[in-house]
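Quick log. Single chain, no ligands specified.
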Amino acid sequence: QVQLQESGPGLVKPSQTLSLTCTVSGYSITTNYGWSWLRQTPGKRLEWMGVIGYDGSTFYSPSLESRTSISRDTSKNQFSLQLSSVTPEDTAVYFCVRDRGHEYDYWGQGTQVTVSA
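-> predicted structure:
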């Protein structure tokens, strides 16, 4: 059974960097597929932020690319998101998912991140 679990601070101050980690169990992130971060802001649709492939390659949403970095720790079977220079507009529920070409078959439960002073 593939399981994903997000972790990280629930509150981030404006201008700081948001950092989240996704711990994957039941499947190695180096075997196949992509591993993505998505977010859902209040009243808006789900937004894809970026992906790290099983080979370590990364791709980002053009609208977020300048502020986004996705990395991984293969020894822990984890991948992480960093979003810099956050504003209140980055307040959202953040999800990590297994990405089969923008078909997301396994999801974390999501974690609420609020950007506020």
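The CA atoms of residues 38 and 48 lie 4 Å apart.
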